[in-house]
From TrEMBL:
It is a multi-pass membrane protein. SMART domains: GAF, PAS, PP2C_SIG. Keywords: ATP-binding, Cell membrane, Hydrolase, Kinase, Membrane, Nucleotide-binding, Phosphoprotein, Transferase, Transmembrane, Transmembrane helix, Two-component regulatory system. The lineage of its organism: Bacteria, Bacillati, Actinomycetota, Actinomycetes, Kitasatosporales. It comes from Streptomyces composti. This is SpoIIE family protein phosphatase. Residues 245-285 form the PAS domain. CDD domains: HATPase_RsbW-like (cd16936), PAS (cd00130).
C-alpha cells in the first residue's frame, strides 16, 4: 500500500494491454462454464456440489423419518383398533347372558367372527375367567388357554400388549366383561397384525421417492443455473483483471471528496487519500509514520490511533469542524488496525443549535408516547402529562378537566372544571391548586381555547387584560411571582373536549413563541388519547363494579347447618366473573356454590349474574348436584348460541362451577364440579385433604354427564371452596398453588373467619390478575333429640297413630300450639302417600329454625296443587297444606320422593 502520488506511470499502458488480452476471457461460453461448475475448483462448483449433497441428505432423512413414522402410526392404530373392538364387544348387549349360557361357543362364535370381519381385525376371542377360549377364528383352538397377558383384565383393567405371534408381529387387547354388580365374568381379546394397518407405507414410499427424485433434479438444475449466473456476472475474472480493478478503486479513493485514513495496529499511518491530507493538514511523507508524530491536535491523534468505534464524532481541526467515522478492521478477521473517514461539516455549525432543539422536541414527543398513559386512571394520566412537560418545555403545567370526565362520564361544556394535575419547578406558585373547582371566564386564554377548539398563546401575561379578568387578585399574584408567558391548549379526543392544558413560563425563561404552540398542541393531542381511554375505562369499570356488586350476595341467609365466612377480592384491573352463594334447601340442608366466568368487564359480570340467578332457580327445584350442573351446562350452551348469532356479542369463553349440598341430619355432603378446582377439607384434628371429586368438563361444552362424590363430614369439619385465582397464576402451576394452599390451611385457626384471614395473608398475590372468591364453612350436626321419625304401614288406620305420635313429640318439644296445624298437615300428606304413593312410607319431623314435616314414599309421582269444585269429594288436601305451612314442596330421591312442609316456630 503506497502513496497515491507514487503510482507507476506504466499502469495505464499495462491496463490497456491487459484489457486487450482479457477481452475474450470476459465473454461467457456455455460449455466452458458448465465444465467449470462440474469441476468443483471454482466457488460456483463448490456451491453446486454442496447444494446437491444437502438435498440428498434431506431426501434420505425424509425417507427414514417417513418409515419410522408409518411404523409408529401402524402400532398406535393397531392398539386403538384392537382395544376399541374388544371394549365394544365386551360391552355389547347379551354377552353376559351368553357367557352364562350352557354353550357359550355356539352363541358367541358367529358373533365374534362377524365382528372380526366387519372390524377388519385378525381375531376376536371370548374366554372365561380362566382364559379358556370360547371363540377363535381357528376352531381347533377353541377350548385352549389364551396366550398373552390377561391378569390386569381380571382385576377390571384393560390391557394392551405388542407380541410376536404365530401370524406375525401383532397388537392384542384384553378387556373384562362385567355383570351389573361390576364382577368380571369373562374376558374379550381382539388383535391385529401391524402389517394389516401399516400398508400406507407401501403406497407413500414410492410417492416420496419420486418426489425426492424430482426435488433432486430441480435442486441440481437450480444450482447449475445459479453457478452459471455467478460465472456470467464475474465474467471469469483472473488475477490480471483483479489488478486492474484495484487500480480503478485506487483512483476512485483519491478522487472522492471525503478523507480516508487507514492506521495499522501499532498506530502507523498506512494510507491517507488526497482529501485526508487536505482536511487534516498532513505532511507529504505522512504514510509510514506514527500518527502521534504527524503534528495533529491531541484529540484527533488520540482518536485515529485508538482503534475505537466512532460515529459522526465532531472534532475541531484548525478552523474546520470535521465529522469522523471510525471502525476497527480486525473485527472482520482482517489485519489489526482501523479505517476512518473524515468529512468537512463546518457549514453545519450554524444549524447545529436548531437541530439540537428539534431533536429535543422529537425526544419529548417520543417520551410522551411512552410515559403518558401507563395506567387507566384519569388523574394519573393528567399528572404524567405535567411531569413530562416540566421543566423540559415549561416551568409550570396544569390540566383542568370537566367534572364528568373524572367520573368517566361525557363532558358537559356548561359545567365547571376541576384542576386534575399541577406540576412546577417550585411548590409555592399562586396558581389554582390541584383539586380546585374552576370556571374560566370567556375572555381568559383557557376560555377562548375551549370555545375556539385551538391553542391560544399569551406571550406576555402582564399585558393580557382578558386573562387578568379571570381573577384580578390571583392574576396579580401570578405576575408578581414571575410567571410571564402562557399557552392554553384544548384537550380534545375526536369531537369531544375533555378539558384544557396550560403551560406557564416564569423567571429567566424566554416567552413562548408561535413555533412552540405546534409542539404544545402535538403534546396535548397525544395525551388526550390516553386520557380519553382512561375516561372510557373508568366509565366501564364503574358500570361493571356496580353491576357486580348488585349481583353478588350482600348478606348470607340464616341457617343452622353451617357456620360460614367468606371473602371476595376483585382483580387489580377490572372486574371479573368469580361468584359464590349460600342457598338454604329443604330438610335443613344447605347448598354452597362457587363459580368462575373467564374474562373481565361487563360481559363477564353479566354472565356471572345470569349463572347465579339460574343456580337460584334450579336449587329451588331441589335437584341433585349433578342434575343442577347439567341444566347449568345447557344454559351456558344456549347463551353461547344466542351470543354467536349477534355480530357484536362474544360467547362465554369459559365458565366453571362447584356445587355442594350438606345435610346436617346425616352429616353427608354431596359435591359435583364442572371444571372447577377441587374443594379442600379440614378435619377436626387439623389435617387437610383434597377429596376426590370427579372433575367434570367446564360449563358449555355439553354432551358429558357430571358425577358426584358423597363425603361424610364429622361435626366441626371445615369445607373450603375457592376460585382458581387463589391457587393459580401465570408464574405458578395449579399443583404448586394447591400445595401452598394446603400449608396455609394447616396453620389456620379453628373458626371460619380465622381460616379466611390466614389463607389470604399467606396466599393473596401482590398484584392480583384474577378475582378471588373464598368460602369456609364449618359443619354442624342437627342433634338427635331434634329428629323424630316413624315408619307408616300402608293402612289408612295408621294415620291416627301417626297423629298421636306427632302430638306427643310436639309436647316434648314444647310446641303444643303447633299441634293442630301439624296434625292437619301430616294427616293430609300421609293419607296421600298411602292412597297414591308406594311403600315404604316414613314420616320425619325436624326441629330447627322451623318445624319441618317430611313424608317419604316409594313413588316418583308428584302431587300438584289444584282447586276442587263444590261437587268434588277430594282434592283439597294440598290446598290446606299450602295454606297452613310457611313453605312446602317435593324432593325426589333415587327411590321415591319426599313431600315436605315448613312451619314457623313461635317465639317464646
Amino acid at each position: 500500500m503506497g502513496r497515491s502520488r507514487d503510482r507507476s506511470p506504466r499502469r495505464p499502458a499495462a491496463v490497456a494491454a491487459q484489457r486487450g488480452r482479457g477481452g475474450d476471457r470476459r465473454r461467457w461460453h456455455p460449455v466452458a462454464g458448465l465444465r467449470s461448475v462440474l469441476s468443483g475448483r471454482s466457488v460456483a462448483g463448490q456451491v453446486f456440489v454442496l447444494h446437491v449433497v444437502i438435498v440428498v441428505l434431506l431426501v434420505a432423512a425424509a425417507v427414514v423419518a417417513l418409515v419410522l413414522q408409518v411404523r409408529r402410526d401402524s402400532i398406535n392404530e393397531a392398539r386403538s383398533r384392537s382395544l376399541a373392538v374388544a371394549e365394544t364387544f365386551a360391552n355389547s348387549p347379551g354377552i353376559v347372558e351368553a357367557l352364562q349360557s350352557p354353550d357359550p361357543t355356539a352363541v358367541l362364535q358367529p358373533e365374534a367372527e362377524a365382528v372380526r370381519k366387519q372390524a377388519k381385525v385378525d381375531f376376536v376371542v371370548v374366554m372365561d375367567t380362566a382364559a379358556i377360549r370360547y371363540t377363535h377364528p381357528r376352531p381347533d383352538r377353541i377350548g385352549k388357554r389364551f396366550v398373552g397377558t390377561y391378569a390386569p383384565a381380571l382385576r377390571g383393567e384393560p390391557v394392551v400388549e405388542q407380541i410376536e405371534g404365530t401370524i406375525g408381529e401383532l397388537v392384542q387387547a384384553v378387556v373384562p366383561v362385567k355383570n351389573e354388580d361390576g364382577t368380571v365374568v369373562g374376558l374379550v381379546s381382539a388383535g391385529i397384525t401391524t402389517e394389516h394397518v401399516g400398508g400406507a407405507a407401501n403406497h407413500q414410499l414410492p410417492l416420496v421417492l419420486t418426489a425426492a427424485g424430482v426435488a433432486l433434479a430441480l435442486a441440481t438444475a437450480g444450482a447449475a443455473l445459479v453457478s452459471r449466473r455467478l460465472l456470467r456476472q464475474t465474467h471469469g475474472l483472473g488475477p490480471h483483471e483483479m489488478t486492474r480493478m484495484y487500480e480503478h478503486h485506487d483512483a476512485v479513493l483519491h478522487a472522492v471528496r471525503e478523507g480516508v485514513v487507514i492506521v495499522d495496529g501499532d498506530g502507523t499511518l498506512m494510507l491517507a487519500n488526497d482529501e485526508a491530507h487536505r482536511l487534516l493538514g498532513l505532511p507529504a511523507d505522512a504514510e509510514g509514520r506514527q500518527v502521534a508524530d504527524l503534528g495533529l491536535d491531541p484529540a484527533t491523534a488520540e482518536l485515529l490511533s485508538s482503534r475505537r468505534m466512532a460515529t459522526d464524532e465532531v472534532l475541531l481541526v484548525g478552523d474546520r469542524l470535521l465529522a469522523v467515522n471510525q471502525r476497527p478492521i480486525d473485527r472482520s478477521d482482517g489485519p489489526p488496525g482501523s479505517v476512518a473517514t473524515v468529512r468537512d461539516s463546518t457549514e453545519l455549525r450554524a444549524l447545529s443549535g436548531r437541530a439540537e432543539e428539534a431533536r429535543e422536541r422529537l425526544d419529548m414527543l417520543y417520551d410522551a408516547g411512552v410515559a403518558i398513559g401507563t395506567s387507566l386512571d384519569v388523574t394519573r394520566t393528567a399528572e404524567e402529562l405535567t411531569e413530562l412537560a416540566v421543566p423540559r418545555f415549561a416551568d409550570f403545567a396544569t390540566v383542568d378537566l370537566f367534572e364528568a370526565v373524572l367520573a368517566g362520564g361525557t363532558p358537559d361544556a356548561a359545567s365547571s372544571m376541576r384542576r386534575a394535575a399541577m406540576t412546577g419547578i417550585r411548590k409555592d406558585a399562586p396558581l389554582y391548586p390541584a383539586g380546585e373547582t374552576i370556571r374560566f371566564v370567556d375572555s381568559s386564554p383557557q376560555g377562548r381555547s375551549l370555545a375556539g377548539g385551538r391553542a391560544v398563546l399569551e406571550p406576555h401575561l402582564a399585558e393580557a387584560p382578558g386573562w387578568q379578568a379571570q381573577d384580578a387578585e390571583r392574576t396579580a399574584q401570578v405576575v408578581e411571582y414571575g410567571i410571564h408567558s402562557l399557552i392554553a391548549v384544548p384537550l380534545r379526543a375526536g369531537a369531544t373536549t375533555l378539558g384544557v392544558v396550560s403551560f406557564w413560563r416564569s423567571g429567566q425563561s424566554r416567552p413562548f413563541d408561535t413555533e412552540e404552540v405546534a409542539l404544545a398542541e402535538e403534546l396535548v393531542a397525544r395525551a388526550a388519547v390516553s386520557i380519553d381511554n382512561a375516561r372510557r375505562y373508568t366509565r366501564e369499570h364503574n358500570m361493571a363494579v356496580t353491576l357486580q356488586r348488585s349481583l353478588l350476595p350482600r348478606t348470607l341467609p340464616e341457617q343452622s347447618a353451617l357456620e360460614i365466612a367468606y371473602r371476595y377480592l376483585p382483580a387489580q384491573a377490572g372486574v371479573g366473573g368469580d361468584w359464590f352463594d349460600v342457598l338454604p334447601l329443604s330438610g335443613t340442608r344447605v347448598a354452597l356454590v362457587v363459580g368462575d366466568v373467564v374474562g373481565h368487564g361487563l360481559h363477564a359480570a353479566a354472565t356471572m349474574g345470569r349463572l347465579r340467578t339460574a343456580v337460584h332457580n334450579f336449587s329451588a327445584l331441589d335437584l341433585p348436584p349433578e342434575e343442577l350442573l347439567g341444566l347449568l351446562d345447557e344454559l351456558v350452551g344456549r347463551i353461547d348460541q344466542d351470543e354467536a348469532q349477534e355480530e357484536h356479542s362474544a360467547p362465554v369463553t369459559g365458565a366453571t362451577c362447584l356445587y355442594a349440598v350438606y345435610d346436617p341430619v346425616t352429616r353427608r355432603c354431596t359435591v359435583a364440579r364442572a371444571g372447577h378446582p377441587p374443594p379442600a377439607l379440614i378435619r377436626p384434628d387439623g389435617s387437610v385433604e383434597y377429596p376426590d371429586v370427579p372433575a367434570g368438563p367446564p360449563l358449555g361444552l355439553g354432551g358429558l354427564p357430571f358425577e358426584t362424590a358423597e363425603l361424610e363430614l364429622a361435626e366441626g369439619s371445615r369445607l373450603v371452596l375457592y376460585t382458581d385465582g387463589l391457587v393459580e397464576d401465570r408464574t405458578r402451576d395449579i399443583d404448586v398453588g394447591l400445595e401452598l394452599l394446603r400449608e396455609a390451611l394447616s396453620r389456620a385457626g379453628d373458626s371460619p373467619e380465622d381460616t379466611c384471614r390466614a389463607v389470604l395473608e399467606a396466599r393473596r398475590p401482590r398484584r392480583a390478575g384474577d378475582d378471588i372468591a373464598l368460602i369456609v364453612a364449618r359443619t354442624r350436626a342437627l342433634p338427635a333429640d331434634r329428629i323424630a321419625e316413624w315408619p307408616v304401614p300402608a293402612d289408612p288406620a295408621a294415620v291416627g297413630q301417626v297423629r298421636a305420635a306427632v302430638l306427643r313429640k310436639l309436647a316434648e318439644w314444647d310446641l303444643d300450639e303447633l299441634g293442630f296445624t301439624t296434625e292437619l298437615i301430616l294427616s293430609e300428606l300421609v293419607t296421600n302417600a298411602i292412597r297414591y304413593g308406594g311403600s315404604p312410607i316414613r314420616v320425619r319431623m325436624l326441629r330447627d329454625r322451623q318445624l319441618i314435616c317430611e313424608v317419604f314414599d316409594g313413588s316418583s309421582t308428584s302431587p300438584h296443587l289444584r282447586y276442587a269444585t263444590m261437587t268434588d269429594e277430594g282434592g283439597r288436601g294440598l290446598f290446606l297444606v299450602a295454606q297452613l305451612a310457611e313453605r312446602w314442596g317435593t324432593r325426589y330421591l333415587p327411590a321415591g320422593k319426599v313431600i315436605w312442609a315448613e312451619q314457623t316456630i313461635p317465639q317464646s
